[in-house]
Amino acid sequence: MEWNIVTLNGSSVIMTFLFDWISLLFMGFVLIISALVILYSDDYMHGDLNIVRFILLVLMFVVSMMFLIISPNVISILLGWDGLGLVSYLLVIYYQNVSSYGAGMLTVLSNRIGDVALLMVIAWMINFGSWSFIYYLDFLAGSMEMELISFLVVLAAMTSSAQIPFSSWLPAAMAAPTPVSALVHSSTLVTAGVYLLIRFSPSFGYCLNMFLLLVSGLTMFMAGLGANFEYDLKKIIALSTLSQLGLMIMTISVGLSSLAFFHLLTHALFKALLFMCAGGVIHSMGDSQDIRFMGGMSIYMPFTSSCLMVSNFALCGMPFLAGFYSSDFILEMFSMSYVNMFGFLLLFLSTGLTVCYSFRLFYFTMCGDFNFSPSYSFVEVNYNMMFGMVGLLVLSVFGGGVLMWLICPTPSMICLPYYLSFLTLVVLFLGGWIGYGMASFSFSDDLFSMSFYTISSFSGSMWFMPFFSTYGVSFAPLVVGYSATKVFDFGWMEYFGGQGMYWILFSFSKVNQWFQYNSLKVFLGFFVMWVVILLFILIY
């Protein structure tokens, strides 16, 4: 659909909307999830004085995502992209405190890099005579301009989807309210980069695909490893999102963009439900997010626990839940593709780690005794929250099968040797066993616990990436500022400059003041001095 906004001297400004099966399906999912999230947040944010402002911000977020989805034009994509970046900043700093301001600044500055990349794409696409990229992808694939544009699009997608080295903003953005996290991590901000890659994927060359494979594989592995050493409930789920984004981009890099889109949709369903359940648990736990204080939740919160475990097992790829259809299909198609050994190992190791942290979460939240205050009383979530969770629960169970019929109407022939066929099952069972065992294991040996602490400090800090993106960025300017202060304000410049001039004038004024305080004595002294001088002149 094209809408002619204005025509001036034969030049037209036209707004184009693209309604194909990808955009319509994705729009439907975004609208369903956002409707259920807003219903959920009506009770979750109950008592907040600015709830109307919060709902309006969420709606602006959704409208920006709509712009991005239906735009085949880079300029209108930039409008949606900028809207997502700005509104995400406002939502992350919604609870106004020091940590949320820091997280918001990290989020918005990381996403500005993507904005600059998209602006450079707009500048380079002037060569083509139009900014509607959808017409050029196949025609200009392989040309120098298209390769440069593709690289800039990949850079923009890496910032939005938090791939290495831009990963640190995603767990930091957990400072936002939980309904926002459910929306951001399922179907809006972080998936915008993946959606852009799916749209531009026909123009990617071999080198760019290999680069994407490496970066996304490392991101997936890093996030899976980090989630196994994390104790913050929301951060574990945020790192699982990062891992799944790595899986989607890895799938795009081997040319399976329709499968990546399939996983994007199924992941949106169970991830939104996972965050909603986490919000309910956090509310009931008196705003505590530490999973070590939880335990035996299935007894005290049966409905929320059921939803949490369904979404958790869907994330693992439990058969016949939403995540199984897409993730199992991706692993089998990946095994049939021409992929190097490193990428193959990263994918299957990261899949095992996903099951590992899911079972670890299951152990800490559902098993054993309740570890919070002994006299603490629970309240199950409210009706609106329950209604929102039930809607997503049904979609998480049946959505994968329905999407399989829609996206893959014809069966795919998968022909693998026995060891590759069973590799997925072996990795899943091994990951679950290790995760459950690691959670229930207690450290008695000091040497072992010290080495474990060293590994966990490296893995749990996302390979020191937040350290580099915050301390690493701010350290050099702060050192220069300190040196400048030392030289100018406390050094020779000050001694010979303002402060030195002040002390000289101060000394002169003290002398002047001494004259004024001792006037009679000074006058007599001057009189004697003049008499002596006169006598001296008269004698000689």
Automatic annotation (TrEMBL):
EC number: 7.1.1.2
Residue stretches making up the NADH dehydrogenase subunit 5 C-terminal domain: 357-537
Alphabetized GO MF terms: NADH dehydrogenase (ubiquinone) activity; NADH dehydrogenase activity
Reactions it catalyzes: a ubiquinone + NADH + 5 H(+)(in) = a ubiquinol + NAD(+) + 4 H(+)(out)
Catalytic EC class: translocase
Keywords per UniProt: Electron transport, Membrane, Mitochondrion, Mitochondrion inner membrane, NAD, Respiratory chain, Translocase, Transmembrane, Transmembrane helix, Transport, Ubiquinone
GO cellular component, one term: mitochondrial inner membrane
Top-rank taxon: Eukaryota
A Pfam family matched in the record: Proton_antipo_M
Membrane spanning stretches: 12-39, 51-70, 76-95, 116-136, 148-166, 178-198, 210-229, 236-262, 268-286, 298-321, 341-363, 383-407, 419-441, 462-484, 490-508, 520-539
Entry membrane topology: Multi-pass membrane protein
Residue span(s) of domain NADH-Ubiquinone oxidoreductase (complex I) chain 5 N-terminal: 8-54
Subcellular location: Mitochondrion inner membrane
Residue span(s) of domain NADH:quinone oxidoreductase/Mrp antiporter transmembrane: 71-351
Record GO biological process: ATP synthesis coupled electron transport; electron transport coupled proton transport
Similarity-based family: Belongs to the complex I subunit 5 family.
Function: Core subunit of the mitochondrial membrane respiratory chain NADH dehydrogenase (Complex I) which catalyzes electron transfer from NADH through the respiratory chain, using ubiquinone as an electron acceptor. Essential for the catalytic activity and assembly of complex I.
Name of the protein this chain belongs to: NADH-ubiquinone oxidoreductase chain 5
Species annotation: Ateuchotermes retifaciens
Gene: nad5
